[in-house]
TrEMBL record, chains A, B:
SMART domains: HTH_LACI. This is Substrate-binding domain-containing protein. Residues 1-55 form the HTH lacI-type domain. Gene3D superfamilies: 3.40.50.2300, lambda repressor-like DNA-binding domains. It comes from Streptomyces ureilyticus. The lineage of its organism: Bacteria, Bacillati, Actinomycetota, Actinomycetes, Kitasatosporales. SUPFAM superfamilies: lambda repressor-like DNA-binding domains (SSF47413), Periplasmic binding protein-like I (SSF53822).
DNA sequence: ACAAGGAAGTAACGCGCGTTATTAAAGCGC
DNA sequence: GCGCTTTAATAACGCGCGTTACTTCCTTGT
C-alpha cells in the first residue's frame, strides 16, 4: 500500500480513503485516477486479514454442520455461501461429524478467527443443545431448535408441506390417500401428518387413521407398509400414497410395480425431501416436496448479518415453505 | 494478551512464548503454569487474524469447485476439510457455478485473504484452463488437468477402475460382459474401456466391440442400450453389464426387470460412481466403484502443504484407485 | 576473586491496514 | 489586504500478535 502511495505521489492515508470510498473525504477525480492506476500497475491487492485487524471486523461467519457430505448440508452451504459472498462476508465451514470433541474444536477455531456470527445446521429437523461458548457470538440454528427456545432458528414448514402434498393428490381426484410416515415421534412426521389431516378435512374428508402407517424412514420399511395398504380389499385400498421421504417412495414404487399396478394411473405417489438422485431418476419421475435447505442457508446469513449489525430480529422462529416439485408420479 | 501477561505477572513476550511453545525459550514450569492459569481465568483466546498478520502466514488454503451442491464436491470438501483442520489450516471455499466472473471474483477474494495454496476441483474428469492469476500461488488440480500439463493434478485411476469392475464380473463366472459406456470421448469413458479390455484379455477373452454401447450418461440412454443388448439371441446376449455410472445402472435395472430377468442370477450389474442414494437403495443394492473424491481432497491438501512449505513434489500427476463396493448385484 | 556461560525475561519493532486529528493550500466575501 | 470556510492531504496512533536483540541474575569452574 505504501508502494502504491509512493507510485501515485500521495500518502498511504489517501490510498486507504479511495480504497474504502471513505465518505467525507474529498478526493479529486484526478488523484483518484492516479491511485487506481498505480494499484493496477503494481498489481496491488489489499490484505484482507490486516484490514480485518485494523477495522476490528473479521468479515467471517461460522457454519457448523453435522456432515459435509450428504445433499442437505451441501445445499445449506450453497445458500449461505452465495448470500455471504455477495455481502463480502466469508464462511468458515466445519463439520462436527456428530463428535462433540470435533464440534468443540471447530467452535474454538471459529472464535479464534473472530467470527461475527454462527450458523448451526443439522441434517434432520430436531432439537439440539449447543456448548455454551456458542453464546459468545450471535447464533442462528438451521433445521433445528434448542429445547430452551432461546436461540433464533429457521425451520422447514412441515405442516404446510404435508398440506400441500395432500392437497395435490386431492386435486388429482384421490380421496383415499395413504400416508407412509417417518418415525412418528419426530417433528417432521408430526407436522406433515397434521398438514395431511388438515387438507383432508378442508376437502370434507374425515381422516382415516388406518391409512397412516409408519415406514421408519427406509425403503424396506416403506415397501412393507405399502404392501399392507395395497393388499387390502379394493374398497379400502388407497389410490394414492404420500411418503415421508423419497427413499420410502422408492420402496413404495417397488410394491406398486410388483402388483402390476401403474404409476400414476392406478396409484399416485408423492415423496418428500426431493433427493434429486432418487426423485429425478425413478421411473416414472417422482413428484415430491423439497426441503428448502438453500433458502434456509441464505435466510440464516441474513439473520446473522442483522444480529451482527446489532439490529433486533423481527421473528425469532422462522419457518420456510416446502415447495412442490411436479414430476410424473401424480 | 496484555491482560494475561499482567495477570500472570510477566511480559507479553513471555505469554507469546508459551502460547507458541517457542523452542529455545527457557520457561520454568511455574511461570508456564501461572500463564496458562491466567489464560483460563480470563477466557483469553488468541486472535487468529492478528497471528497470521504478524507471522506472515495466513493458514488458509482456497478451494474452488464448480458446484457446492452435488455429492462429488461435498466429498472433496470433506476430505480436504478433515486433513486441513487436523493441520490447523483452514479452507476458504467458493463455488464458481460454472461462471467465469464468479470464479474470478472468488479467486480475487482468496488472494486478498492471502491463501497459501489453491485447490481447484471439477465435477467430472476433464481438462481445464485456469485464469492466470491462479499462478500467483501454489495450485493443485483435483479431478481435472490443464491442457499444458504445467500444474500438478490428482485424478481417479479410471483404467484400473474399469479393470477392477470387469475383473469382478469375470471372477463371478461371466464371460460375455456388456459395457454401457459414458460419452465415448471423455477421459473417464476411455480409461474405463481400456481397463475393461485389459481385464478381458488377461482372462484370455478377446474383447467384442459389439458388446460396447454408449449410454450417454443418462438412465434413459442406458435403458435403451441395455434393451438392445438383452434382446439379442441367447448366444450373443451378455450375462453381465458394466455401466458407466449408477444412474445408467438404474436404467439397465429397468430393462432387465422388464424382461423378467433377475439380478444378479440372470444378469449381473456393476455401476460406477457410488452415488449412495442410488446404489444403496436400488433393489437389489448395486455393486459399484467409488470415485475417490474424499481421498483426492485429502491428497490435494497434502500436496498443497508440501508446495506451500517449498518442498518439491514427488509426482506431478497423481492417480488414485477407485475401490469396489460389493453389494448384491453381482 | 573473577570471567564465562546459561537461564529467565523484557523492550521495541514491524506485520498491513483504518482512522483521527491536524496542517497546508485554495477559494471567497468585503 | 485580511479573516473565514472549504478542499486536499498527511502524520501518527493503534489493531493483536511474532520476533529479535538485549538485559539482568544466577551458576559454575578455576
Amino acid at each position: 500500500m505504501s508502494d502504491v502511495a509512493r507510485h501515485a505521489g500521495v500518502s498511504r492515508t489517501t490510498v486507504s480513503f479511495v480504497l474504502n470510498d471513505k465518505p467525507g473525504a474529498a478526493i479529486p477525480d484526478e488523484t483518484r485516477r492516479r491511485i487506481l492506476e498505480a494499484i493496477d500497475e503494481l498489481g496491488y491487492r489489499p490484505n484482507a486479514g490486516a484490514r480485518a485487524l485494523a477495522a476490528n471486523r473479521s468479515g467471517w461467519f461460522g457454519l457448523i454442520t453435522e456432515i459435509v457430505t450428504g445433499p442437505f448440508a451441501a445445499e445449506v452451504i450453497t445458500g449461505a455461501q452465495s448470500r455471504a459472498w455477495g455481502d463480502r462476508r466469508f464462511l468458515l465451514i466445519a463439520a462436527s461429524e456428530g463428535d462433540p470433541a470435533q464440534e468443540a474444536a471447530a467452535l474454538d477455531q471459529m472464535l479464534e478467527h473472530r467470527v461475527e456470527g454462527l450458523l448451526y445446521a443439522t441434517t434432520w429437523h430436531r432439537a439440539v443443545t449447543l456448548p455454551k461458548v456458542a453464546r459468545e457470538v450471535p447464533t442462528v440454528l438451521v433445521n433445528c431448535y434448542d429445547a430452551e427456545g432461546e436461540l433464533p432458528c429457521i425451520l422447514p414448514d412441515e405442516e404446510s408441506g404435508g398440506h400441500r402434498a395432500t392437497r395435490r393428490l386431492l386435486d388429482a381426484g384421490h380421496t383415499r390417500i395413504g400416508l407412509i410416515n417417518l418415525d412418528p415421534a419426530i417433528p417432521a412426521a408430526i407436522g406433515r401428518r397434521e398438514g395431511y389431516e388438515r387438507a383432508l378435512r378442508e376437502a370434507g374428508i374425515t381422516p382415516d387413521p388406518s391409512l397412516v402407517l409408519p415406514g421408519w424412514a427406509t425403503a424396506d420399511g416403506a415397501y412393507t407398509a405399502a404392501c399392507e395398504l395395497l393388499d387390502r380389499p379394493a374398497a379400502d385400498r388407497p389410490t394414492a400414497l404420500f411418503c415421508g421421504n423419497d427413499r420410502m417412495a422408492m420402496g413404495a414404487y417397488d410394491a406398486i410395480k410388483e402388483r402390476g399396478l401403474r404409476i400414476p394411473h392406478d396409484v399416485a405417489v408423492v415423496g418428500f425431501d426431493n433427493q434429486e438422485l432418487i426423485a429425478a431418476y425413478l421411473r416414472p419421475k417422482l413428484t415430491t416436496l423439497a426441503l428448502p435447505f438453500e433458502a434456509m442457508g441464505t435466510k440464516g446469513v441474513d439473520m446473522l448479518a442483522a444480529l451482527a449489525a446489532g439490529q433486533p430480529l423481527d421473528t425469532h422462529r422462522v419457518t420456510i415453505d416446502c415447495p412442490l416439485l411436479e414430476r410424473s408420479s401424480v
